[in-house]
What we know:
The radius of gyration is 58 Å and the shape is flat. The protein contains ten helices and 44 strands.
Amino acid sequence: MKLPKLTHGALAAALAVFALGTGSAYASHVDPILVAGNPNCPSKGFGIGFKPQPEPPPAGTYTIPGTSHTLTITYVSTSSGQTFDWTSTLGMDAVIVKGGPNANLYVYNPPAASLGDTGLHAPVNPNGQYAGVSHIEFCLGEELEPNIVADKQMSGEWEREWTWELEKTVSPNVLDLFVGDSHQVKYTITTSAEAAVTYRLSGTIVVTDSTTPSQVQSFAAFADVLTLYDAADNVVATLDTTGGSALDQKFAAAHSGCDQLSISGTQIFSCSFALELTEADIANLADVRRAANEAVVEFNFPSGVLGASDTAEYTFNASPDIEIDEQLNVVDPDLPALNHVANAPAGSEVSANATYTCDAGDRRVTNTATGTANDSGDEVSDSAHVDIYCRQVSIEKTADAKFDRTYRWEADKFVLISAAKFAELDAEYADTCELIEGGDHDGKYKCEKSLVTLGNSQTLGVEYLVEVEPFIDFDDNYRITGNIVISWPQAQHGGAGPDLLLPPSDTITFQGGATVNPSVNCGDPVLDAGIFTRTCSYEYQSDSVPALSGQNAATVTRNVKCYDDQGVASNCGTQDIGPATANFTFALDGTTNACVEVVDYFNNDLVGDVIDANVCAASSFVVSLYSVSANDVDDYAVRDEDNCLWTVPNIVILFSKDSDDEWVSSQADIDVSVPSLCQTGCTLTPGYWKTHSVYGPAPYDATWALIGEDTPFFLSGKSWYQALWTTPQGGNAYYILAHAYIAATLNTLNLSNPAVLSGDQLTAYNFATSVLSSNTPAQIGALRGNSALRNQIIAAAGVLDAWNNGITGPGHCDE
Length: 815
């Protein structure tokens, strides 16, 4: 039990008693105040009231509920009636004495709680005598600390329910038998049980306050924690009503009345829960053997928030409290030997045999077993099937007449150029060219050799045209081949083929009456396209071409088999199959050099590039794998070093796919001229520089690295690369000049000769530098069409553009 708190006034009164000694704790006797009716302490503005029991209380000492304090009442008889004195170890603010229809109220003033008084009595009756005392209520002068106690209770049970599975099998389940054959099979019933557990827990928590009446004001908070343990006291799961998981929320929802006061006598709170858990909630629920449950409740009192807690534990039985469907009654109406009762958890396995004989057709035999659970009556069943295939041996005769053919190939190689490029060539190159009319390359030229001109560090892609065509060389190796194929449907589970009496009889008859009985060669069984076969073969061969056709006929015999339950066979008779016939006529079969691999050898490359790995008809190919570069001239053959002219040869070799034969094409040459290496140089257009930067899409020209594509371009707010790609909207002269200026700068760097700009070109370049470095695109774009400065800018751009396009200056490079 908890001790009460002393209020500030009570503490002062207690100190006064200690200072003054015995008797000084009594207040001066006060006169009563007559109060009509039946008042109590709270109705008169005081706190907790205490009525000694029974009523009227006998003289004696009483313990004040909820405290260790005592109160003593002593009665005194007077001429006016009965009075009483009282003393208490706990200060009182007032005393109500009830007698007759009214009551006397003794209020101790100043309001320092009194520890005693004398001469108290009930109201005076009309006859001048004190009324008899019906009850006395003392108004406590101090606030009592609540004495709250929690009591937690919990109980539980667990249930195990078995779910059964029944499997019926038969082995073998497919019988591949010939007509009249028999076979024994084995049926097996296997049962197994799987348990699902359910745990149920229920509990209550009741909180009482022995302080009467309780001063609880309201409910404050509640928390309940359930911890589940396995047999080794490892925590399996923890559920918390204040948690956020789905399991916590389920636990919280299982509670009832846990969010409010429940006052009845000394009880101030009552809460309960009923929780059901399955393995869907906790995967390893079956491991649980013990549960611990702790609840905490808090309340609002005048003195603040007070709480109480308690813990309850429950240990589950080792065996389930409830067991459902632990037995399965198995019945097989077709095979009574399989009937039995299966028990969980072991299950069962029972077998029995049956024999089947093959008749003229295929059929399926079905056998079903059913199991019934002992409690729920739930049923499980399964069926086993035996598929019986009654097979027939068949015989087929083939006869094939064939011959072989050998091919040879021719190949040509050309440089493929546009009409515009052809117009630039002089007679040395143009006379080797031929106009292509029609097809994918209509209007282009194929040349035995061509010329390209490159700037310093420039790389240029080139195209070649390859033409290949096959021709018949000769035919030979005429032959007739024939097979006698004895076949039967394939066994589904490794069944054997028929026991054949070999060899079969065989006759080849040619058109015109000639016959031959070749020796027959029979091989082992071969599984071919899902059919078991026994194949016997023959062959006739000649280098002359016979103008003949013919027919072949064959017959075979087999032993009939019977099988025991282990699959061991015994002979049960014989059967003849046939005759089978086949006609034949000669047809083309094998070819040599029918297909080739086309390999391109650029600049005398020792390895070569495969253009097409398998060409089997006349074809043409455009080869765009290669490029020529001013940086690679040391790898080319020198044609005229003084004039910076080199030759790049190219051939195609055709390799047979099935022989050592090969065919070499004519050679196609490209002469590469790099004027800058002879210090004459050439220029490239803005369009070339736009597409040959690090951003592509054309091959990268390293000249860009001397400037840097992303370097800021003067006051434009753009990089050199972005300015070159910016369209001159509204005829903005700034970007018209910028395009020509950027190309001229790159061409100057590409030529490696700053002096290449001279005269008007150099003047225009310097003017452009001044304009672009001191003006923004917006400033130049604002110039009107008749502006003198704008006209100067357009003129300078024209001078530089003519130089970039080769109209003036050292001339234009191939792009």
